[in-house]
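Journal club prep — side note

Before the paper discussion, L.F. wants everyone to see what a predicted structure for a comparable chain looks like in token form. Sequence:
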Amino acid sequence: QVQLVESGGGLVQAGESLRLSCVASGRTFSNYDMGWFRQVPGKEREFVASVSRGGRSTFYADSVKLRFTISRDNAKNTVYLQMNSLKPEDTANYYCAAGAAGIGIVKEQFDYWGQGTQVTVSS
């Protein structure tokens, strides 16, 4: 089992930045590709970004490219999501996920999930 705990969410104004963190425990962190997803009530959980276990490969949803950056520190068992130029449409609950089947962009490729951290962007 892998336990994931997100932090860093909050209320910001449009144009501001936030950095989300997700700390993993329970298994060897570097054996897992990591991802961030987000969800608003009544909608499907959607892909935001993912990073390979070594950190060299990343993928982004088109809606966040050039604004968000995913990174990881395997020594700290932590994955980050730096979010710049935030928009009201970025408002959602953000979830961290871990998967061992290869870096992916769909939620079915991830096996473990955190509880989420809320990000609210006001206009």
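L.F.'s comment for the group: The chain has a mean pLDDT of 96. Keep this in mind when we get to the figures.
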